[in-house]
Amino acid sequence: LFARAAGGVISDSLNETMGMRGRILIHALLLLFEGISILVFAKTDTLAGAVIVLVLFSLFVKSANGTSFAITPYINPPYTGSVSGIIGAGGNLGAVCFGIGFLNLDYTPAFNIMGWTVVASAFLSVFISIKGHRGLLHGEDLVVDKETGEIVEEVKEGEGLLASSKSNPVV
Questions:
Q1: Is the pLDDT higher at 17 or at 158?
Q2: What angle do CA 165, 16, 131 make, to 5 degrees?
Q3: Phi/psi class of residue 111: alpha, beta or left (left: φ > 0; alpha: ψ in -120 to 50)?
Q4: Which of 39, 60, 75, 127 could join 34 via S-S bond, C-beta 3.0 to 4.6 A?
């Protein structure tokens, strides 16, 4: 119940200090921990251990969902609803694909495929690039109109994050 909101709150707090880089960083880390916990779960051989790992896995999954939807409004502001729908549908597509994997494979290989896929997505997250926002590897913070998503002006050298980014990086 609380983990998805916690992911969003953590993303918001990192946005305060690091801008979009903070949001992407926590997103990538939570995905990495999610993938690792799936791989550990596949190797767990006791019920108690499996339950503990499953609870941790669930916390990482829901927290990563929260960070995903904390990034979503910045992708294409005029079409946030459409972007949210596509992101939500992606989760359902993954569930169907992994469900098919579990139907056709033994549990350990299916969990390994799932775990390594999530770990790979964590590493691919470092390449997320959102117009007007600095990513982990490149880009710069700019002033972006929240209605149109268009760049209004560049941040002046030495100012760091925008003053407006303390509450909302999209102006």
A1: 17
A2: 50
A3: alpha
A4: 60
Q: At what angle do helices 47-75 and 3-18 cross, to 10 degrees?
A: 50
Which tokens in the block code for residue 6?
């916690």
Q: Is 139 helix (H, G, I), strand (E, B) or coil?
A: coil
Q: Which amino acid is at 133?
A: H
Contact predicate 71/133, CB 8 Å: no
Helices (H), 76-138: 80-104, 107-124
Which residues on neighbouring strands pair with residue 170, listed in sequence order?
144
Q: What angle do CA 15, 16, 17 make, to 5 degrees?
A: 90
| pLDDT tens column, 23-64 | 999 999 999 999 999 999 999 999 999 999 999 999 999 999
Question: Max CA-CA distance within the chain?
Answer: 57
